[in-house]
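Summary for the lay section of the report: proteins are chains of building blocks that fold into shapes. Here we show the chain for Mediator complex, subunit Med6 and then a coded description of the shape we predicted for it.
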Amino acid sequence: MAMTPMIPPPNAAAGNPNFEGAPIPTAPTPPGTDMTGICFRDQLWLNTYPLDRNLVFDYFALSPFYDWTCNNEQLRLQSIHPLDISQLAKMTGTEYMLNEVMEPNLFVIRKQKRDGPEKVTPMLTYYILDGSIYQAPQLSNVFAARIGRALYHISKAFTTAASKLEKIGYVAADAESEEPALEPKAEKETIDLKEVKRVDHILVSLQRKLQPAPPPPPFPEGYTLPATAEGDKDPEGQQATEPAAPPLDPIIDQGPSKRTKF
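The coded shape description reads as follows.
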């Protein structure tokens, strides 16, 4: 089984610490828990070695996502394949497992904590897509991002709807403010001529259907209408101030009967 030459951990100091004045090697810095904003790709390595299930872990070890304190690194130092599950099951601590493989395009690597041969706790997930290494976001972050995006669009929709309703409210308020100014104009409007003509037509038709009134009976000979003093003085003023009294019936209103005395 071909393996690429092991690369010393980063931040490893050169020189022999046993000699005086030589720098003391420091422990490599573990990768962060949230590195979803970066991507790693080594085109030189991809041009030199094939990317398959046997060499994919060596390629992953070159990335900043790799934890040099994991159990897989201890197996590499012992010249054992770092993904040997029979050896990893005997150890406890942080390790990497090849979860899914779709050669040569997709490889999914899971970081987990092993507390026993059958007890592991998933921590993070990484995937290699066409030679580029990414950290998969956590499910809670995916839900938070999508919910935040949905709330943004909902808030934007409500803002747009509120702006439209405000314009409608302004138009309605303007119409209500104009209504009192139009009311006095409505009081000064003239009567509809069509309605007047219709009423006149009805009255004329009724007048034609009714029979004419009979003429009044004739006055007796020598009878004259009584005239008041005011009527003699100013008959025109009387007609202007009050309507004329109806004529008296000469047959009915003739005064008391005259009897002869014996």
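Put simply, here is one thing we learned. Confidence is low (pLDDT under 50) at residues 12-22.
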